[in-house]
Each structure stands twice: as structure tokens, then as C-alpha cells.
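Example record

Each entry pairs one chain with its bound ligand, protoporphyrin IX containing FE.
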Amino acid sequence: MLEVRTEEGKPLEMDYIKAEILLVMLAGADTTGTAFQSILRFIMLNPTTYTKVMTEIDEATRAGHLSAMPQYDEVLKHCPFYVAVVKESLRLYPSASSVFPRLLSKGGMIFDGQFAPEGTEVACNPWVVHRDENIYGADASEFRPDRWLESEDKAKLYNKYNMTFGYGARGCLGKDIAMMELYKAPLQVSVGNMDMGNAVNIRADRAASFFERSASKPLMKRT
Ligand code: HEM
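C-alpha cells for the complex follow.
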């Protein structure tokens, strides 16, 4: 970046370089880490969810639908409940829950009958939008992954108003990578390898591979 030159042949300003570096450092790491945490937290705090997730993974494994390193398409197709858990976790705990401001372009905009001129800074908060009862219904604040599976039309609506990765032209550039990580990695490294019914009971003997365990041991008993 120090060597980059603008169209006018000038070096980038140091503040701009710092901002870019901060973005690269924070954009992909903390956000994905925070999402992992909230997914695992919701699974651990909800015994019904935990049982359903584990049953789904175990059945998909027994049926040979998941590779040793679960593939994105396999998880999407054969673990719909787990996918819904990921979406519901991101809905309630969007990793970047602050606002992402935008400046209104030429002509301004009308908000709820109020005109805001060009250049006005406007923003929207994902934490609030994701709890909008007009979109998600009266139980908007509850963790209920099944909502994503009940109706295709509703799921489309939820996706339309999802701001986990921001919105529009400046939306997250790493969204696809992040979703791939979130669908694949917990299945491989965590959910299958520890007894999360008892959060402290991490099974070292199962740490090698969820699938090793699946092939040789009773799947649901983790004591
Ligand atoms: C769960 C994980 C992630 C979440 C929740 C997330 C969320 C976000 C959000 C909310 C924004 C601001 C979007 C806006 O202003 O509308 C953003 C921007 C960005 N993200 Fe992510 N992100 C994640 C993972 C990643 C990863 C893995 C990468 C890179 C590999 C990445 C790269 C970027 C970049 C480069 C931007 C700036 C885009 C721009 O300004 O044009 N993000 N992300």
C-alpha cells in the first residue's frame, strides 16, 4: 500500500492506509469468530436445538452424506436444521451490530414523510432490524431456528431484510467465504467433537474427528 499511487500519481494518505489495514485485520477474523461463538452458545443453551443438530449430523453421517471434511453443498442439502441454526444465530447476534452509515446521493430521500437532502448521513442498525416484529412476527426476539424452515416465502423475506453482512454496494466482500466457514467448520471441529450438553465436557478422545467417532461409537450418548 505504501507503493500504491493514485491516478494523480500521489501516494495514499497514511490515515487511509491505516483504515484499510484495520479493515483487513478486523473484517474477516473477529466477525467470523464472533459468529462461531454465538452459534455454539445458542446450541449449548438450548437442549432441544442441541439434540436436533446432533441427530441431524449423526443421521447424515450414517447415511454417508457428509464427507470427512464436510462440503458446503453437503451441509446445505443434508443439514437444513443446522443451517437454520446458523442463520438464526446471525439474525439475533449479527457480529457487526453497529450501524453502517451511508451518505444520501443526489436528490435525497423521503423517510416516513420526512425529506432528507443529498449528503445526509443515514444508517440502519442490524440488531434492531433483525428483531422487527413486522418481519419476524411476535416471537422476533426468540431463538427459534425452525422459523427458517417453515415457509419458503417467509425465509425469502427474512433473507431480504437480513443485514448481517451489511447491505448494497458496500456490503461485505467476504460473505461467501464467511458462510462457507460457518457451515463447514463447526461441524468439523466443534459440534461433533464435544459434549455440548455439558459445556465443560470436551471429549479429548473424540477430538481427532467427528467422523471417526461416528463410525465407531453410539452417536447420541456423550457421557
Ligand atoms: C460472519 C462473518 C462476517 C460478518 C458478519 C461480516 C460483516 C460485514 C459488514 C457488516 C460489513 C459492512 C458492510 C456495509 O457497510 O454494508 C463488512 C464489510 C467488509 N467485509 Fe465482512 N463480515 C464477515 C466476514 C468477512 C470475511 C471472512 C472477509 C474477508 C475474507 C470480509 C471482508 C470484508 C470487507 C473487505 C468489507 C468492506 C467492504 C467495502 O467496504 O466495500 N468479511 N463485513
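The chain has one domain: 17-97+136-222.
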